[in-house]
Amino acid sequence: MGYRHERNACTMINATLTVAVALLVARLGLAAVFGVAGLAKLRDRSGTREMLIAFGVPLDSVGVLSTLLPLAELILAAALVLSLSARWSALGACALLVVFSCAIGVSLARGRKPDCRCFGQLGAAPVGPRTLARNIVLLLIASFIALGDPTHSDSLVFAWLGSHVAWTIVGLVVFGIVAVQSLVVLEMLRQQGRMLLRIEQLEGASRHFASNGHSNGVQSKAGLPVGSPAPSFTLPTLEGTTVTLADLRLSGNPVALFFVHPGCGPCIALLPEIAAWQRDLSQRLTVAIISELGVAENLRSLGGLRLQNVLIQEHRAISDSYQSSATPAALIIKSDGAIGSGIAAGAVAIRELIEAANARSVESVNPKATV
């Protein structure tokens, strides 16, 4: 009887120690996840802003939340490490994960897949069932921590480690070496990926430049051939009416066609300039915007700007027909309905495109006198 009782006691102690170790590992693992996520968001503030906008956060709250969210994650990570605050931190992590999961679930239910930048540029990818499943797993881990007793479990683990000092030191050294090597390899892979992507972009631009040269003073990196007919379209506006390409050409001026997305930070930053071009160049250039998603998302992204000719496309149907794969992007359509430029992608290229189009319009209105 004594042997059996002693054996049952050992089994119970081992089970308790196993739960204590699992609780400590869960805390440290969840702290690492929130710590990496917080630091990554702080390093990629623009990406965090884009993510919040894409998930429907009001523009007037995006700036504050893009700072508070990573700070909250870092605070939770630090509190999870300390046994006295681990339970409360786990409850906070549960609340945050529930909010994240609900936002992802609502987006998926509406057929939207905005980019999830939970880990900044390390894991930027459209949300999906896997993203939701990952959050649910983290929620279960946080719940396990909240239901445990970190203070008691830590004392058990440290007492066991104290009786196995040699193996503990060896394990920590091995873990440190593996962790450092993993970080070095990860950073090398990231740098190599960025370098390969940059090389690919330069090679693509060089090939296109070799075949098409410059178009209207701006390098054409993509798009339909200059001089080919511009694809026609009929699209709804934010006001509920419909506008066609023929309607935009009624003034007899060239049309500057912009492709934007309400969840694109550079697009939102460029909107005030587009509004100024609409106002200042209205006698020489018709400026129109083709955006994605719904009316509510686009109204939020406008931020009170009085923009005209804001058209909504279904997914990327019109962008694809014009072979425009980036946002923000723009091109010129001549007054006769032909493609007048290649696709200018990015704010710098777009400004050059509009300056060149405006200069040609001024020259056509005020031709130089010939002697």
Main attributes?
single chain, Glutaredoxin, 2 domains, five-stranded mixed beta sheet, two-stranded antiparallel sheet, 12 helices, 63% helix, disordered C terminus
Q: What's the main sheet like?
A: 5 strands, mixed
Q: State the shape.
A: elongated
Kindly name the structural category.
Answer: alpha+beta
Total number of strands:
11
What is the H-and-E element order? Answer: HHHHEEHHHEEEEHEHEHEHEEH
Number of helices: 12
Q: What number of domains?
A: 2
Spatial strand order of the main sheet: 9-8-7-10-11
Distance between the termini: 121 Å
β-strand amount: 5-15%
Low-confidence stretches: 163-170, 204-220, 365-371
On the 0 to 100 scale, the average pLDDT is: 75
Rounded Rg: 28 Å
Residue share in helices?
55-70%
Give a summary of the structure in a few sentences.
With 371 residues, the protein is α+β, with helices and mostly antiparallel strands. It is built from twelve helices and eleven strands. Helix 1 crosses helix 5, helix 2 crosses helix 3 and helix 3 runs antiparallel to helix 4.
Describe this structure in words.
- This protein is an alpha+beta fold and 371 residues long.
- The protein folds into two domains: 2-163, no CATH class; 218-365, Glutaredoxin (3-Layer(aba) Sandwich).
- The chain has twelve helices and eleven strands.
- It has helices spanning 2-43, 45-54, 59-81, 83-109, 129-147, 150-162, 165-212, 245-248, 265-280, 295-302, 317-321, 347-365, and strands at 115-116, 125-126, 214-215, 218-219, 234-236, 242-244, 255-259, 286-291, 310-312, 329-333, 344-345.
- The protein has a five-stranded mixed β-sheet with strand order 9-8-7-10-11, covered by helices on one side. The chain has a two-stranded antiparallel sheet with strand order 1-2. It has a two-stranded antiparallel ribbon with strand order 3-4.
- Mean pLDDT is 75; it is low at 163-170, 204-220 and 365-371.
